[in-house]
Each structure stands twice: as structure tokens, then as C-alpha cells.
Write a structure and sequence with these properties.
The chain is of the alpha+beta class and 322 residues long. Helix content is 44%, strand content 16%. Strand 5 (79-83) and strand 6 (86-90) form a beta hairpin. Helix 1 (22-32) runs antiparallel to helix 6 (212-227).
Length: 322
């Protein structure tokens, strides 16, 4: 599994725990340009599903896709995820479903200061084609076909559905092979009939495509991350997309669900969060280092994005650290 620090979405205004430098971003962004094919199942005994519990300091891998479906429960970790063309923060206690052929990557910048692994998850992979080949002998497959098509945009679960699925996954990890199979179908029964999920990607993907719009978006992300501490030019961003400024603004908002200026400010504020947790950095210096031309302007955007002032944010982090 894989984990990138990009700006917060409107739905996830967490107190920033992210920390990623531009060189790391550039490496991952370059990988995003061409999602690579991987095989999720080890095929030990030609099984059609596997469940894994992962405990590590950080996830970092290529933007990739596979033909298998993936149900992932993050029970410890925070950072950023990209699923299709959707980029957003993730935190502990998150449950997502990745359909076949949907590119994805998770990133958590670094581990915490405790001795426990800071990235802990349970992931279930299963082969949808193999499942569909024998399911007609057991059940009606139309609901499964429908679910698999919807899953090509990625799903983020909430409510009772999330609680039910994460309990099944926890029990599944230590179960016998026969019990694991029963739990697989219990998961499917929940997945096929729930409406408690948010669709993540704007587009449906197959075998890692489409790519063209994604390549444009990521080139713009790269431009912003390279230049956020200086003046950001809307004209230059539009030029990267080979669009006029009005057309670019419509294109960017359609793909990211936010304006370009909001995106730029979120990038700057995320960098400010990283600098604020370092004791030696003064807030005024941070404001200018992140591309803001005045302290009042910085304070205004910081509070609108994080819901808290920079000084309160710094104090809260230091208090939690102690």
C-alpha cells in the first residue's frame, strides 16, 4: 500500500500533522504522471483474496493500480492520499475501497516519536474476476457487477457501514482460512447494499486510465509546490494547461472541487503548519516564508482553513507534545 502531502479538502480540516518537503513531493508527483501496474495478490495457492495487517513507520510507494479490489482500514496514521484524480488528507480510523484499475497512493511523511509504528492498517485484496466466475453458482451477481462499476471511482465509508466493516476486518486477520472466506462474503454483503459512502474520484478508471487530465493537474501541483513561497502566477498555471485563464479556472475547479487560489493558499498553510511545530520559527517569519505578503493576510487564511489561529495552533501542538 502507498501514502502525499497536498492541501486539505473542504471536508477534512484537521489540525495539521503533515510534514513533506518539496523534494519528496516532486518524487511522488513524477511517479503520479504514469501510474504503474502492480499485482496485489501473492497467488499463494491460487487464492482469490488475501488480508494483510501492516505495521511500519511510513508508507511511500509509486502511484499505482492493480486489477484486484482493495478494502483498506487505516487504524493509525495520518497524511495524504490520492485516489484517481482526488487528493485529500487522511487520518486514523479511515476506511476506503479501491476498485479494479483505479490508481492510488497514500503517503505519511514520517513516524512519530513513540516506539510504535506510526502507519498501521489492515488491507483486504480480492480478485473480482475470479469472484464473479464462481459466484453465479451461489448468488445473483447483478448487485456485485453494479458495485464493482461504482467502485472504479473509489469509496470512503462512514457511519454504521464503516463500524461493521472494520470489525469484520479485525476478526478476519487472525481467523482460519474457512472463517476468512466467510468474513469475505460478510464484507461483500455489507458493501453491496450500503449507501454510507462518499465517491472520491471525479472519473471512473480502468487499467490506470484516463491519464491526460491527471497529468495536467499534477504538473500544476508541481508548479505550485515549487513556487508557493514566491508569487504564484495564474497566467503561468494556465499556460501549463495550455488554456486561457478563464478556461483554466473552470478546468481546475471541475477537477479539484476548489478554486486555484484556494488550492495555493492551502498549500502555503500546510507548509506553515510544518514550520509552526518547530520551536525556533517565529510566526511572522513563517508567514513570509510561505508566500504571504503580510501577517494579517496570513492569519486570515490560516484561520479560515484550519479553524484556529497560528499562535493557538502552535500552542496546542506544543501542549500535546508535552
Amino acid at each position: 500500500m502507498v501514502f502525499i502531502t497536498l492541501p486539505l479538502s473542504d471536508n477534512y480540516k484537521s489540525i495539521g500533522k503533515l510534514d513533506i518537503g518539496r523534494p519528496v513531493f516532486n518524487k511522488i508527483c513524477n511517479a503520479f504522471m504514469r501510474p504503474v501496474y502492480t499485482k496485489a495478490l501473492s497467488n499463494l495457492g491460487n487464492r482469490i483474496f488475501e488480508i494483510r495487517r501492516e505495521n511500519c513507520d511510513k508508507y511511500l510507494s509509486e502511484y499505482h493500480f492493480h486489477s484486484e479490489c482493495q478494502l483498506t482500514y487505516i487504524f493509525k496514521g495520518n497524511g495524504q492520499r490520492c485516489i484517481g484524480d482526488h487528493l485529500e488528507d487522511f487520518e486514523s480510523d479511515e476506511l476506503t475501497f479501491i476498485g479494479p484499475g483505479l490508481p492510488h497512493v497514500w503517503y505519511n511523511a514520517h513516524g512519530d516519536t513513540s516506539h510504535e509504528p506510526s502507519a498501521q492498517s489492515i488491507t483486504l485484496h480480492f480478485d473480482p474476476e475470479a469472484l464473479l466466475s464462481f459466484c453465479p453458482l451461489l448468488v445473483e451477481t447483478a448487485p456485485l457487477h453494479d458495485f464493482l462499476e461504482r467502485s472504479r471511482q473509489g469509496m470512503l465509508f462512514y457511519g454504521q457501514t464503516k463500524d461493521t466493516l472494520k470489525k469484520i476486518l479485525r476478526k478476519m486477520v487472525g481467523a482460519s482460512d474457512m472463517q476468512k472466506t466467510a468474513y469475505l462474503f460478510e464484507c461483500l454483503a455489507t458493501l453491496l447494499h450500503t449507501e454510507e459512502y462518499a465517491v472520491l474520484s471525479n472519473k471512473s478508471y480502468s487499467n490506470g486510465s484516463p491519464r491526460k487530465d491527471g497529468e495536467i493537474i499534477f504538473s500544476i501541483y508541481n508548479y505550485v509546490f515549487e513556487n508557493f513561497n514566491n508569487e504564484i502566477s495564474l497566467q503561468e498555471a494556465a499556460k501549463l494547461a495550455n488554456l486561457t485563464k478563464p478556461s483554466f479556472c473552470r478546468f481546475f475547479k471541475a477537477h479539484t472541487r476548489k478554486t486555484f487560489s484556494k488550492f495555493v493558499n492551502e498549500v502555503r498553510i500546510n507548509e506553515a503548519c510544518r514550520l509552526l511545530v518547530q520551536d525556533e520559527n517565529q510566526i511572522t517569519n513563517i508567514a513570509y516564508a510561505c508566500g504571504f505578503n503580510s501577517l494579517p493576510n496570513f492569519n486570515k487564511f490560516f484561520k479560515s482553513i484550519k479553524g484556529i489561529t497560528p499562535s493557538d495552533y502552535k500552542s496546542k501542538f506544543l501542549m500535546n507534545k508535552d
